[in-house]
Amino acid sequence: MSYRVLWHEDAIKDLRGIGKSDAQRIILKVETYLSHNPYRLGKTLKGHLKGFFRYRIGAYRVIYTIEEDKLFILIIRVGKRDIIYRTK
């Protein structure tokens, strides 16, 4: 079973700030791998991001949530590990 992938406007903004080749690699990995098994590939987060998951792609992290009843993954944020977990 494959989940549909939706990108939040903040995640799209994050991708625009990343180099083109890295952004393409992130999109490809999310669409190809994460959409097929978001629970196994992701790890649950704690603290202020409790209830969300993260998927590691090299130095980048993809923060997402899973809507099981609607069968989609909502990508919330994308960024490097040292800044992605900071609160706004």
Quick structural gist:
By secondary structure, this protein is α+β, with helices and mostly antiparallel strands. It is built from four helices and five strands.
Break the fold down into its secondary structure elements and pairings.
Blueprint: E1 4-7, H1 9-16, H2 20-34, H3 38-41, E2 43-44, E3 53-57, E4 60-67, E5 72-80, H4 81-84
Parallel strand pairs: 1-5
Antiparallel strand pairs: 2-3, 3-4, 4-5
CATH superfamily name?
RelE-like
Ends apart, CA distance between termini? 35 Å
CATH topology: YaeB-like fold
The count of helical stretches stands at 4
Strand order of the largest sheet: 1-5-4-3-2
Low-confidence stretches: none
Radius of gyration from CA coordinates: 12 Å
**CATH architectural label:** 2-Layer Sandwich
Q: Which range does the strand content fall in?
A: 25-35%
What coarse outline follows from CA principal-axis ratios? globular
What is the tally of beta strands? Answer: 5
Domain count: 1
Query: Considering DSSP H and I runs of 4 or more, what fraction of the residues is helical?
Result: 25-40%
* Average pLDDT level: 93
H/E element order: EHHHEEEEH
Largest sheet: 5 strands, mixed
What structural category characterises the helix and strand content?
A: alpha+beta
